[in-house]
Amino acid sequence: MRFDLSTISQVVGLAILASGIVATWSLLKYRVDELETRVKEQEIKIEQQEAKNAQQVAEVKCLICQAHNIPCPGC
Asked: What is the sign, positive or negative, of the torsion defined by CA atoms of 53, 58, 63, 64?
C-alpha cells in the first residue's frame, strides 16, 4: 500500500479533528456541570432571601396594625 503526502495529511487532519471534538465535548461537560452547581447555589440564596422578605412583610404588617390599633391575625 502506498501513502502519499495527501493521504497522510488527510489522516492527520482527521485525527486532529477528532481530538478537537473530544476536547470540546469534555470541556463543555465540565462547564455545564460547573454552571449547574452555581445555579443551585443561587437558587438556595434566592429561597433564603424570599423567606427573609416574607418575614419582613409580616413584621411591617404587624407594625401597621399596631400603629392604627387594628387587630390583625398572626400579630
From this structure: positive
SS3 string of 12-75?
A: HHHHHHHHHHHHHHHHHHHHHHHHHHHHHHHHHHHHHHHHHHHHHHHHHHHHHHHHCCCCCCCC
In 3D space, the residue among 39, 37, 58 whose CA is nearest the CA of residue 47 turns out to be 39
pTM of the model: 0.56
Q: Which residue has the cell 492527520?
A: 12
What helix, strand, coil percent values describe the chain, rounded to 5? 85, 0, 15
pLDDT tens digits along 2-57: 778 888 899 999 999 999 999 999 889 889 999 999 999 999 999 999 999 999 99
